[in-house]
Amino acid sequence: MDGREQDEAQSKYSFEDCQATADWLLSQTAVRPLVGIVCGSGLGGLADALKDQVAFNYRDIPNFPQSTVHGHAGRLVFGTLKGRPCVCMQGRFHLYEGYPIQKITMPMRIFKLLGVETVILTNAAGGLNQDYKVGDIMIIKDHLNMPGFAGNNPLAGPNDERHVYVCLFRFGVRFPCMSDAYDRELQQLAFDVGSELGFSDFLREGVYCVLGGPSFETIAECRMLHKLGADAVGMSTVHEVIVARHCGMRVFALSLITNKAVMDYDSEEKANHEEVLQTGKQRAEQLERLVSTIVTRLEHNNNFA
Ligand SMILES: O=P(O)(O)O[C@H]1O[C@H](CO)[C@@H](O)[C@H]1O
Ligand code: HPA
């Protein structure tokens, strides 16, 4: 995209568009969520844990994109997790679906306008770290934003300063800090909760690398990403994290290691989406317990970026 196209893309998902969507949702449900959850590939079962659900198909929500990927149901579910008001995206959007990066991250701004303080993102990812096993859950402590290196950042384009000054930092500053993107207290909380639940054997922490997809990586690419410091690779999450931090929400993210990245020319293994969904099913229950227990321990957040 050139500069003009980026400006156009950005202006299509303006503050007013996001506000209209948020207002519509708030008029349809009495739930006032403090926690926003994004379900990764095959991990949509998390939304089913919500009580007293009010659910919307993405196609019925004004200005909302549509899910096109198998394993992403395309529903926005409001409800409570052990009494805490939450909103859950049962299905997310990816760059490779052909949406502008501003559109795939728009739900984060809608979360913010709904009153969400903490965002919990999950994803399915390939394990680059040789110590990782399929089924491990990696708490994300940092990221490598490969599309960002090429200039594809969801914050590219005009930054609507009006809202920084007039609307109490609703969106955010031109140059947001990312060295504190993943909340350290929440990472510690996740380790504590994981240990209480007996999950320590498969709980890890590491660096997630986002690529554009949809093709899986070559062997040379996996080796390079590992050398660069990535522990897991996927095609999502980072763009959402950047936008969530830009507008001052606290972020916690986890990757389910659904497959081992192929690093060896002698290997017969081949990455495939069916394996990704299958591993999701196997760990679904533990992932759900981990996330819902973390949610019950969250404190109110006033951490504006
Ligand atoms: O990141 P989530 O949405 O979990 O999906 C992951 O799974 C798909 C590949 O199987 C890709 O979309 C990758 O990003
Ligand atoms: O190996 C992978 N690579 C990229 N994205 C993925 N999502 C799940 N597994 C993978």
Automatic annotation (TrEMBL):
Ligand binding (phosphate): 41, 72, 92-94, 124, 236
Keyword Electron transport in record: no
Residues covered by the Nucleoside phosphorylase domain: 35-295
Gene Ontology cellular-component terms listed: cytoplasm
Function description: Catalyzes the phosphorolytic breakdown of the N-glycosidic bond in the beta-(deoxy)ribonucleoside molecules, with the formation of the corresponding free purine bases and pentose-1-phosphate. Preferentially acts on 6-oxopurine nucleosides including inosine and guanosine. The purine nucleoside phosphorylases catalyze the phosphorolytic breakdown of the N-glycosidic bond in the beta-(deoxy)ribonucleoside molecules, with the formation of the corresponding free purine bases and pentose-1-phosphate.
Similarity field: Belongs to the PNP/MTAP phosphorylase family.
UniProt protein name: Purine nucleoside phosphorylase
Source organism (scientific name): Labeo rohita (Indian major carp)
Lineage: Eukaryota, Metazoa, Chordata, Craniata, Vertebrata
